[in-house]
Design a protein that fits this description.
The protein is 26% helix and 33% strand. The chain is an alpha+beta fold. The strands form 4 sheets. Strands 2-1-3 form a 3-stranded mixed sheet, with no helix packed on it. The chain has a two-stranded antiparallel ribbon with strand order 4-9. The protein has a two-stranded antiparallel ribbon with strand order 5-6. Strand 1 and strand 2 (14-19) form a beta hairpin.
């Protein structure tokens, strides 16, 4: 069963999220009926997901594909101990990538290259 996890932001605001239960090992527990207290700030918990998004964007923006836009969708789960984890869908981590190109852009790029 999922539990409530309370994260504090760097500005001191409280965010309560439905977190995932840790499968094994030590757990953060709450005293009483309140949510479990996260060991990290909300921003630091999401730091790994941000780094993963930046790396993925770099991979898809660089190189020969050169899409007009890149859309990344991560499934993210939050836990009191580990912070944010890229959630699995089926047996692997969840990452949906959408690349798009504007119609006629390739033609405009080709004309610009011919003029150089």
């Amino acid at each position: 069963m999922d539990t409530l996890v309370e994260f504090k932001t760097e500005d001191g605001a409280l965010i309560v999220v439905e977190g995932v239960d840790e499968d094994a090992g030590a757990r953060m527990v709450s005293r009483g009926d309140g949510p479990a207290q996260a060991a990290r700030t909300f921003e630091s918990a999401l730091g790994g997901v941000r780094a993963a998004a930046e790396s993925a964007l770099r991979v898809f923006r660089d190189g020969t594909l050169r899409p007009d836009s890149v859309e990344l969708e991560f499934g993210v789960k939050l836990s009191a101990e580990t912070g944010a984890v890229i959630a699995k869908g089926a047996a692997e981590g969840h990452l949906l990538v959408k690349l798009s190109w504007s119609p006629g852009r390739a033609d405009a790029d080709r004309v610009a290259a011919d003029r150089s």
